[in-house]
Structures
1.
Amino acid sequence: MNEAAIVMLLVIGVPFLLVGVFVLANYNRLVRVRQHLRESWSDISVEMKRRYDLIPNLVETVKGYAAHEQSVFEEIAKLRSQAMRNEGSAASQAVDERALGIGVGKLLAVAEAYPDLKADTHFLALQQELTNTEDRIAAARRFFNGNVRELNQLCRAFPTNLIASMFGFEESSYFELDDDAQRTAPSIQI
């Protein structure tokens, strides 16, 4: 192979090699971000499952003091069931979680009318655990939304948008709550 052929091979081959390395590096970056997104959603799911398990115990405790508040108990059971069955997008899950949060707020409002219930150690422990769980959901939601933002930026920005569309990466939806009252955990008044 003469010197001119080697130079010609380098002139043609090096740009293809650089493009290949660029595509490979950004593909791996997109895969990594998508995997982080899935893991962070899994963290949210674990904490939501924990909350779903706490709610029936909280309802049963309140029922012991306020059995005539049947409509609130039935509404919470319906909202909890609806939220647990949701397997849609994060935005869709946020709608059901928002409704469930409103229902739990109504339950806690009922509890406010019963001083003996508010002093019950079991109720206080459940309420504290619910508050801790809400805090963990909020932290997991922030991490998830950070991963969504990174993936969406990669899917929109040039030239990574070309690689994302070439390999089927899609933007994801945020897990957001609409009103500020739902962004805070239920308060405990001892």
Note: The CA atoms of residues 111 and 117 lie 6 Å apart.
2.
Amino acid sequence: MLIIFTIINFALILLAIFFIILLFIKLSKVQQLEQEYRTLIQEAEDTITSYVLELKEENSSFLQKLSNANPGIAHLDKQESFDTREEELTEADLKDLLMQENVREDHIETVIAEKPFEEWNIKDQVMHLSEKGLTSSEIAKKLNKGKTEIELLLKFRQ
């Protein structure tokens, strides 16, 4: 009788060890997914931060050009919001600024075409590769960046 209880006890111990190993494997997978999730969130935050900074720079540049193009509103405080300035703009001012922006973008594209691909900024590289028909995964591999970062850049540029 004692031998039967010992065998059952041994079998239960083996079963408990098996379940402990299964739980450890599941816990490891959950921790790995959590780490990947944190990495994706960090990449998304970095991308959004860079995009917001770029928008802020473009906005500042636009306001600077607006102040230079129309000396009547140059005396306005730089901290004044764009909404206040927007009311003072005429349609001709906006057309002039948009034409200047188009000329500047054409100049930038010409300068980019003269540089080697490795010296381009990340946004231009992504757009160039996207125009060539590469997928976001292929672009991410080629530029050694995260797939999510590339997808966000492509979404922002649409």
Note: Residues 59 and 82 are 9 Å apart (CA to CA).
